[in-house]
Specification:
The chain is α+β, with helices and mostly antiparallel strands. Helix content is about 35%, strand content about 25%. It has three helices and six strands. Strands 1-2-3-4-6-5 form a six-stranded antiparallel sheet. Strand 1 and strand 2 (about 30-35) form a beta hairpin. Helix 1 packs parallel to helix 3 (about 95-110). The termini are far apart. About 30% of the residues are buried.
């Protein structure tokens, strides 16, 4: 467990909970803290002290750029590698980058919802 990993995960959790109509829980396994909007997953926080990562939705072209630009950003763990990325603590992984990634992931999830299920504009 690292302080940088704790900060990364805490930043992601705070960013997610600040967004409208977000719910979270452990629907898959006790080690995965899952954040959803209207039933759509947009953030997964891994509660493994040896693997402190977050996983978010990402447009494929942005995912490729992030994976090539940061050593600690990889294709999404256990998910569609084109549409999800995993971020771990490392050089260049700032609170702003984490917050932006969580908010962009949320926006992607909301865009795919029927208009009647979308939360009020933020």
């Amino acid at each position: 467990m690292s302080a940088a990993g704790d900060r990364l995960q805490d930043t992601a959790r705070q960013a997610a909970l600040a967004l409208p109509d977000v719910s979270h829980g452990y629907p898959f396994t006790p080690g995965l803290d899952v954040y959803k909007v209207a039933g759509k997953v947009f953030l997964i926080v891994t509660d493994d002290p040896d693997e402190q990562i977050i996983t978010v939705k990402c447009e494929p072209e942005h995912a490729r750029a992030h994976v090539h630009g940061y050593a600690s950003i990889t294709p999404g763990r256990y998910l569609d590698k084109r549409h999800w990325i995993s971020l771990g603590p490392g050089p260049g992984i700032t609170e702003r980058l984490v917050t932006d990634a969580v908010e962009a992931s949320y926006d992607l999830a909301v865009e795919r919802l029927p208009p009647r299920d979308r939360p009020a504009a933020r």
